[in-house]
Amino acid sequence: MKTLNEIRSTFLNYFEKQGHTVVPSSPLVPRNDPTLMFANSGMVQFKNCFTGVEKRDYVRATTAQKCVRAGGKHNDLDNVGYTARHHTFFEMLGNFSFGDYFKSEAIPFAWELVTKHFDISPQRLYTTVYHTDDEAFELWKKIGVPESRIIRIATSDNFWQMGPTGPCGPCTEIFFDHGEKFWGGPPGSPEEDGDRFIEIWNVVFMQNEQFEDGSMRALDMQSIDTGMGIERVAALLQGTNDNYATDLMRSLIEASANVTSSDPDGPGKTHHRVIADHLRSTSFLIADGVMPSNDGRGYVLRRILRRAARHAHLLGVQDPLMHRLVPELVRQMGEAYPELREAQPLIEETLKLEETRFRQTLDRGLKLLDEELTGLPEGAELPGASAFKLYDTYGFPLDLTQDALREQGRTVDTDGFDAAMAEQKAKARAAWSGSGEAADSRVWFDIADKHGATDFLGYDTETAEGQI
Ligand code: ATP
Ligand code: MG
Ligand code: MG
Ligand code: MG
């Protein structure tokens, strides 16, 4: 059985032998890039190499990159706990060419690594190409993939973009079929989001740059950017379709079960999965200098942590939980990511403080939520005003309320929530002009938002979506 740490070395060693420089992961907070909240893929640190603005002393690179997808264009927060393949924090393995090799080498590299070094049977693999990309189609055919397993996709799934601006291009993806016992269909089918066919690797042909006004230019050089989710490969190499059953995630789930004296696979199963996932994203974010706050990156951290705290509460534990799991995380990942070990005391303290504070209002908030729900017809939306009250009085981020309701098949009236928020802001603004002082810190955020003083990312994922 290959462990996650062994998979990382196999990948990096393979590409090092092919002339790639092994480059360390960049921090989760991108340097000098207000267009992006967190590193969401391996290419982020190389963005300027693709556009030609920056030159390095290598033209081939390979990395294991820390990624967080909890806001913006790539947001998987709502998938955690519900799919077998999504995390908010994960590691992306990648190989990069800056104007060096292109499609005809990138495709054979990927195939050789997957079928020879990871020893994955070609009979279990499917590939996709952008619908107009005949060249990629032919390359897969030449390598021996049957035509019936090379699927042309016309959607944005096969045209990769980091965010609304930046380098981008058509891509080709490799999927693994976990077999009939799982529900799901091949890429491009209506059931593709099931847990049977899982995307493991995305190979992007970087050839365009997207601008804010919607226009796109062809880049001067043709480059390669790839991303393989290490947890997904670990899952299939360890004989499971479930990322959360892999060695590393399992150890965190078991730590959560031990500390709460509960069964990792019992009725609290989903809570343990969410906790294990959120432990990684919150700890790595803190290690990279993000602190909980009411705006921007710090608010995303706070939201993730509050979600985790609610799941911990549902397991019936009275005391804060998250900080007690940090030692296991450091045991698992401290060697590959020494910053985690260095920041351990800060991580533990921050998690403990945040969870302790939130628990003071969590109970009352959940009671209020119950009260608001009694009397509502089954399946009816929670009124926006109620969700706003939970946000305003009890510190419930909107997505936490949505997460809580999803278990009951309910949603929130988000228009109503936005309206209540707007009304609150208007009131605060009026109070401010009267006194000459900020009556509410939200006024400041509102102004910062409008004038772009910070990369304010909104109170909910919708706002964040438009801004990153
Ligand atoms: P999916 O369609 O499954 O959501 P994606 O197309 O959004 O994945 P990419 O942006 O192509 O993913 O990222 C490259 C690779 O990173 C994916 O092929 C996958 O192996 C991995 N990956 C992407 N998102 C996640 C996630 N949330 N958790 C774990 N691995 C991920
Ligand atoms: Mg995705
Ligand atoms: Mg995809
Ligand atoms: Mg993809």
Automatic annotation (TrEMBL):
Residues 2-468 form the Alanyl-transfer RNA synthetases family profile domain. Its main location: cytoplasm. The keyword Coiled coil applies. It is found in: Cytoplasm. One of its GO terms (molecular function) is zinc ion binding. Binds 1 zinc ion per subunit. Its EC number is 6.1.1.7. It is an enzyme of class 6 (ligase). One of its GO terms (cellular component) is cytosol. It catalyses: tRNA(Ala) + L-alanine + ATP = L-alanyl-tRNA(Ala) + AMP + diphosphate. One of its GO terms (biological process) is negative regulation of DNA-templated transcription. Its cofactor is Zn(2+). Keywords: Aminoacyl-tRNA synthetase, ATP-binding, Coiled coil, Cytoplasm, Ligase, Metal-binding, Nucleotide-binding, Protein biosynthesis, RNA-binding, tRNA-binding, Zinc. The keyword Protein biosynthesis applies. It comes from the Bacteria. Catalyzes the attachment of alanine to tRNA(Ala) in a two-step reaction: alanine is first activated by ATP to form Ala-AMP and then transferred to the acceptor end of tRNA(Ala). Also edits incorrectly charged Ser-tRNA(Ala) and Gly-tRNA(Ala) via its editing domain. Belongs to the class-II aminoacyl-tRNA synthetase family. Consists of three domains; the N-terminal catalytic domain, the editing domain and the C-terminal C-Ala domain. The editing domain removes incorrectly charged amino acids, while the C-Ala domain, along with tRNA(Ala), serves as a bridge to cooperatively bring together the editing and aminoacylation centers thus stimulating deacylation of misacylated tRNAs. This is Alanine--tRNA ligase. It comes from Pseudooceanicola antarcticus.
